[in-house]
Specification:
Shape: globular
Radius of gyration: 21 Å
Largest sheet: 7 strands, antiparallel
Number of strands: 15
Distance between the termini: 41 Å
Helix content: 25-40%
Length: 446
């Protein structure tokens, strides 16, 4: 992650770790933060009043807007802090979604993956994971819908790194249509990247994040590359003494090879600059900004209820790795299109071959090298996480708990927006992945 949103993980992951537990709630004790109920932005009263009193204001300077618990309000208000670019839904009427609400889902139980933890209900898991909004579709109908925290039906929420899966899907579409050759070297499409480590990688290696380059997203290290990336992509005026790169694209030209000699294709490493390289490739091939292509090919054709938007850097480049904000039901529409093999309302919006390629998964050995304990046996393909479980599930994922979870066997799509205090999904997966599986099994039995 970088630019305006590069601070999202940074602030949550390091600057506020000193908070102490404020409740007997087990999950809050484990994180060291107030509970979801205590930190609810409606309870906190952020930005209320005309004007809000100083103690309730959330402002941009020094990224105060993404310190916890302020972030629980900010995730629904990013465009009030940062410049953005529209993802237009077009001028047509929204496509209605069918409802078949199931009152039994809240009582579904599961056992978390790790630790000596008792069974938990689906409803209990929502606050445990600081859920702001959650939607479940089964066989194309909405069976569950909840809005919590800052989110309302008419609101938009930061998708964070779920943005990568939209970028990856656009790339897979271009590959399936023959407009993009994923065997080409990046430098053959973006000559400006030839001197960088990305120049010798293939497009596919960028899409699957098996590139090798020098980069650290260690937010606790003030000298880590993520801070150089952040400074380059900041949309705000640079200090007078700033002499670094300007914007995402210029930064990418400066990235060097892996210092340990790892070669492209050997190992999976989840690094956001890959997504911004892919965004550049998409734009160069299509002649359109990522926001424009997403609107033209998907958002304006799926009957979306709302425009989406993406944050941009100082030269107006959309953040292809994490800048999207959107409404809950619109992400549900997108997830259902993916589950349908690209078909929506009788029209093939996404080539079936693109979806098949994603679901086929990536290099298992390369993924295993990353050491994800709760995702063992998984892979990564086209900027999607492939679980390779018995249901063939796969997902778009973002820090602080963002998820589009697709279970083809159960014919189920789950969309979750959240504002978990810590920017590591490894802290959320133990009470999320088994919950998704339990709901899938429940729905299959209905």
């Amino acid at each position: 992650m970088s630019s305006s949103i590069s601070r999202l993980a940074a602030i949550a992951a390091c600057g506020v770790m000193g908070l102490t537990a404020m409740t007997s709630n087990a999950n809050a004790q484990a994180t060291g933060f107030p509970t979801a109920e205590e930190s609810d932005p409606n309870t906190m009263g952020w930005m209320t009043g005309f004007p809000p009193p100083p103690e309730l204001r959330i402002t941009n300077p020094d990224s105060v807007f993404f310190s916890f618990p302020r972030m629980r309000w900010s995730v629904c208000h990013l465009r009030e802090f940062l410049p953005t670019e529209q993802v237009s839904r077009g001028l047509g009427a929204p496509m209605p979604m069918e409802y078949a609400l199931d009152d039994g889902i809240d009582a579904v139980t599961f056992r978390p993956l790790r630790g000596d933890v008792e069974e938990m209900t689906w409803e209990e898991s929502l606050n445990a994971n600081y859920t702001d909004g959650i939607l479940i579709l089964h066989r194309g109908r909405i069976v569950y819908e909840r809005y919590l925290g800052c989110l309302t039906e008419a609101g938009q929420h930061a998708a964070m790194s779920m943005t990568k899966s939209f970028t990856g899907t656009l790339a897979e579409m271009l590959v399936a249509e023959g407009a993009l050759d994923d065997t080409l070297l990046v430098s053959e499409i973006i000559p400006e990247l030839e001197p960088s480590a990305f120049g010798s990688a293939t497009v596919r290696q960028v899409m699957d994040m098996t590139t090798a380059f020098e980069f650290s997203e260690d937010y606790g290290d003030p000298n880590a590359a993520i801070w150089v990336y952040n400074a380059a992509a900041s949309p705000f005026p640079k200090p007078d003494d700033y002499d670094g790169p300007e914007g995402y694209f210029e930064y990418l030209t400066t990235v060097g090879p892996d210092p340990e000699g790892i070669q492209h294709g050997q190992e999976f490493h989840y690094r956001t600059p890959n997504s911004d390289v892919l965004g550049w490739i998409i734009s160069r091939v299509s002649g359109m900004e990522v926001t424009e292509l997403l609107s033209e090919r998907i958002w304006s054709r799926m009957g979306a209820e709302q425009d989406a938007y993406m944050t941009v850097d100082g030269v107006g480049t959309p953040f292809a790795g994490g800048g999207l904000s959107a409404g809950l039901r619109d992400l549900g529409r997108f997830g259902q299109i993916i589950l349908n093999g690209g078909e929506w309302n009788g029209e093939q919006l996404i080539p079936a071959a693109a979806i098949e390629n994603i679901r086929g998964g990536g290099d298992l050995d390369a993924f295993a090298a990353a050491g994800y304990a709760d995702l063992a046996g998984g892979s990564y393909r086209g900027q999607w996480w492939i679980f390779n479980n018995e249901h063939g599930a796969f997902a778009a994922r973002g820090v602080h708990g963002q998820t589009i979870y697709i279970d083809p066997t159960a014919e189920m799509v789950i969309v979750r927006f959240a504002s978990f205090p810590i920017a590591f999904n490894s802290r959320i997966d133990p009470t999320s992945l088994p919950a998704y599986q339990a709901v899938a099994e429940y729905l299959m039995a209905q």
